[in-house]
Design goal:
alpha/beta, Rossmann fold, Rna Polymerase Sigma Factor, Chain: A, seven-stranded parallel sheet, four-stranded mixed sheet, 16 helices, globular
C-alpha cells in the first residue's frame, strides 16, 4: 500500500492523479492533499479521499477550509504555509509524493521529498530547472526513487534500458528526441503574434492544462524547460537533446540509439497514462485512458522548430549551455513575464524579450545551496518587474 501526498491536488495533474488512485483503492491511500487557495475544491477532495492532512497557502484559507471540513464531519488536520508543504512531503507516514505544484513554489517541498528518500513523482519541472545538480544529488544521497511525470520525460524513461545509469554512451544512446505539439500558434502568421490574447494563448489544441503552463506551451518555453529537465534526469548534454514538433501529440518522445534504432512511446494525450505508469512502476495498471487507435489517427507528422517563431526555446538552450544560475534566472524571468501577460500588463511577444533582457543583465554564478538558488530567483524576479514598469 502506497501512502501518497499530492502537492497541488486541485490542479490538472493532481486531479488526474486522484482519478487514477480512485481506480485502485487496494493499492493507494491518500495521506495529504495540498492547494494554494482553491479551498472549496480541496474540501471536496478531502470529503472523498479522507486524507490525514491538508495544506493551503495562508492562515485565512486554512480557517475557511477548517470550517468547511467541520461542517462536513471530516477529521482531516489542516495546515498552511511552505513549511507545512515540506512537512507533508517528508513525513514518515508518506511513501510517495506527487510533486505537481507549478513554478518555483514547488521547489522546496519537492526537494524535501527527495531528501527524505521518498518515491518522488516529479511533475514540477521547475524543481530541476532551478536546482538540477542540487536536486539530483539529494536523490542520490537519500536513495529516493525519482519518476518523471511530464509525458515527454516519462516516455523517454520508458524507452531507456531498465538498468539505465545516466551515462548515455554506456547504453548506446545517441540522442533524445523530445516531441512538442507546437501549441496553438504553430502556423499563425508571425506578424500577428503581437496581437495574441490571453484566451488564445491558453487554448491548447491537444492538452488540458493550467493557464501558466498553457502560455509556456504557446511560447514553447515549456519545451525549453523540458530540455533542461531532460539533461538533469538522463545525463544527456544539450547538443544531444533534439526538439521535434509533432502536432498530433501521439508520439510523446523518442530515444535514438547508435545502431540506428529509434524507440518511441505512443499514446492518447492524457496525463493519466504517465501518472499510472509512475505510480505502479515496474508494474502496469489501468489508467482510465482509452487505447490508441492508430487507424483513426492515420498520419503522424514531424518537423523542426523555428527559433524565430519560438525564441523562448532558444533562450532555454542558451541557459542550459551557460549552466550555473542561468536556468534559475530563465525560469524566474519567465514566471514573471507570463503572469504579466496573463494580467494584460505586457503583450505576448514581450514575454521572450523580457526574459532575454533579464538573462543579458544578470551574471551567471554557481548555485550549490537552495538559499543561493532562491537568491538568484529573487534577483531575476525583481529585475523583470522593474523592466515591466519602464
Amino acid at each position: 500500500m502506497q501512502h501518497i501526498t499530492i502537492l497541488g491536488s486541485t490542479g490538472s495533474i493532481g486531479v488526474s492523479t486522484l482519478d487514477v488512485i480512485a481506480r485502485h483503492p487496494e493499492r493507494y491511500r491518500v495521506f495529504a492533499l495540498t492547494a494554494q487557495n482553491r479551498v472549496e475544491e480541496l474540501a471536496d477532495q478531502c470529503v472523498r479521499f479522507h486524507p490525514q492532512l491538508a495544506v493551503v497557502g495562508t492562515s485565512e484559507a486554512a480557517s475557511r477550509l477548517q470550517q468547511l471540513l467541520d461542517g462536513k464531519g471530516v477529521a482531516t488536520q489542516v495546515m498552511h504555509g511552505e513549511q507545512a508543504l515540506c512537512e507533508v512531503a517528508s513525513a514518515s507516514a508518506c511513501t510517495t509524493v506527487m510533486a505537481a505544484i507549478v513554478g518555483g513554489a514547488g521547489l522546496a517541498p519537492s526537494l524535501a521529498a527527495a531528501r527524505a528518500g521518498k518515491r518522488v513523482l516529479l511533475a514540477n519541472k521547475e524543481a530541476l530547472v532551478m536546482s538540477g545538480s542540487l536536486f539530483m544529488d539529494a536523490v542520490k544521497t537519500s536513495g529516493a526513487v525519482l519518476m518523471p511525470i511530464d509525458s515527454e520525460h516519462n516516455a523517454i524513461f520508458q524507452c531507456l534500458p531498465q538498468d539505465y545509469s545516466r551515462v548515455p554512451e554506456a547504453h548506446g544512446i545517441s540522442r533524445i528526441l523530445l516531441t512538442a505539439s507546437g501549441g496553438p500558434f504553430l502556423t499563425r502568421p508571425l506578424d500577428t503574434l503581437d496581437s495574441v490574447t490571453c484566451a488564445e494563448a491558453v487554448a491548447h489544441p491537444k492538452w488540458v492544462m493550467g493557464r501558466k503552463i498553457s502560455v509556456d506551451s504557446a511560447t514553447m518555453m515549456n519545451k525549453g524547460l523540458e530540455v533542461i529537465e531532460a539533461h538533469y534526469l538522463f545525463g544527456v548534454p544539450a547538443d544531444d537533446i533534439e526538439v521535434v514538433i509533432h502536432p498530433q501529440s501521439v508520439v510523446h518522445s523518442m530515444v535514438s540509439y547508435v545502431d540506428g534504432s529509434v524507440l518511441a512511446e505512443l499514446g492518447n494525450p492524457d496525463m493519466r497514462t504517465p501518472i499510472a505508469h509512475a505510480l505502479a512502476y515496474p508494474e502496469r495498471i489501468a489508467s482510465g485512458v482509452a487505447p490508441l487507435d492508430l487507424m483513426q489517427i492515420a498520419n503522424l507528422s514531424f518537423m523542426a522548430p523555428d527559433f524565430a517563431r519560438f525564441p523562448c526555446l532558444k533562450l532555454a538552450y542558451d541557459a542550459l549551455r551557460a549552466g550555473g544560475s542561468a536556468p534559475a534566472l530563465l525560469n524566474a524571468a519567465n514566471e514573471v513575464a507570463v503572469q504579466a501577460f496573463l494580467d494584460e500588463r505586457i503583450g505576448f511577444r514581450k514575454i521572450d524579450a523580457l526574459i532575454a533582457q533579464v538573462m543579458d543583465a544578470l551574471p551567471v554564478c554557481n548555485v550549490d545551496t537552495i538559499e543561493s538558488v532562491f537568491e538568484q530567483d529573487r534577483l531575476a524576479r525583481d529585475l523583470a518587474e522593474k523592466l515591466i514598469l519602464q
